[in-house]
Amino acid sequence: MRWLLGWAYLPDIVTKPGRAYLDGVILNWESVPGASTAFAGRYDEGKTATHEVGHWLNLEHTFFGGCNAKGDFVADTPAEKTPTSGCPAGKDTCTAPGDDPIHNYMDYSYDSCYNQFTPGQAQRMADAWLLYRA
After folding, report:
1. I need a surface site. Which of 1, 11, 106, 110 has the fewest CB within 10 A?
2. Is there a catalytic annotation at residue 80?
3. Residue from 45, 52, 60, 80 carrying the catalytic annotation
């Protein structure tokens, strides 16, 4: 259950009256490298922080919206119907071109599988920084 590892609200939380106190990133200390063996071999490389900061900078999960055309609202992220568990090469849950983005920080793969944001996600984060955070 990924939600036990951390959470963050999307940045528009700061525009909602009386909700700015919810702004920030919360992490389970046991997901930090070397802190615990609770998530050993799964979520223990600290990449939960990268995932949650992605939310803080306006990224949805890669499986948000499932296989529909808008998906996670980033055009270069392949469509994905379901969250990933582990690091299953060749996972493909939608008929749209491209395998599921199991290496993307915004999926639920194991930390050892993560290594990328897409260029579109990087642009969306930069835009969110300028709009909400700068």
Report:
1. 1
2. no
3. 52
